[in-house]
Amino acid sequence: MQCPSCRFENMPGLETCGRCGTSLVLATAAIDVHPPRASRAAKRVRQAVPRRLLFQARDAAARAHHAITDSIVEEARIPLPEPGILPRLIVPGWAHLHAGLRIRGWFFLAAYLPLLLIGVTRWGTQLGSIAAGLAFSVHASSVIDILIRQGTVRFPKMMALAFVVSLVLALFIYGPAGWLLARRLAVPIEYAHDAPPFQRDDVVLINRWAYALTSPQRGDVVQFRPNGAARVADPNQRAFHRRLIYEQDELIDRIVGLPGDRVVWDAGKLTINGTPVAWTPLLPKRLPPHLDITVPDGFYLILPTTSIGAADAARPEAYWTFAGLIGRNDILGIAYLRVAPLSRVWLIR
Q: Running DSSP on this structure, what letter comes out for residue 267?
């Protein structure tokens, strides 16, 4: 049997050529030289309907079907990323490094971490807000980039993808983290005027959850409502509370006495229950020469030395006793860090 390709003579019964491997089955197949023809009815239809219009209608229907089904069913579908990619989207660049895109991964990570660090350490300032916003943008860009490069996104427009990614990051990562910082763990307070020992433009961070599980301790520098509450007796021997309202709504000063403590301030030295302590209120020069105060139950002694209108060394001891007694509900949290300006960044002790 001769090969139709290389003309090699093969043994009868072989299916492929022994020299070039060409199939010999087709060479021996019988070819019908009389193919089936169209019926009379089909010929009459072709003569009555122009073939060009028929083909144009068929092609238009195919294009319409493709446009409807592909755009809705296929292009709008978003398959999930690879199992190793999805959990790594929480850190910009991590998914790129896992997928082997090292240059892009290190680029996103190197751009994100400094911005995040500035946003956290400068929290509550204008620079911190700008840095936090840029860190969010870098994170969203890294997620969009890795999804596109994996081919898992079928959105027809990039704006839709960018909106969805930004919304997911804002709702599940940056929104809860921002609320936790701004409302509880790092509440920023910016001073609009000098209020020694703080100055104008100082930004102080307050931890509102500091006493969620513990009680205030001696020496803590806290934020409190400067509405001193004192218990006095009227002629009918009925007790009532008087509220003293200062110029500021909230102050920062040190707790010098717990319920039941006897606090003595004499000649610039502080003694609690007969034991001298090294710390003092934040502005001890505004105190009178001598104070001897016993803290009743349910109150803490916070001498408001940082108050502009209330702190006066000329006021009598009875006034300081009345003004320094603060209820537990009026202590808002611990002041722990001054983050602005850069020349005054320091822990509050």
A: T
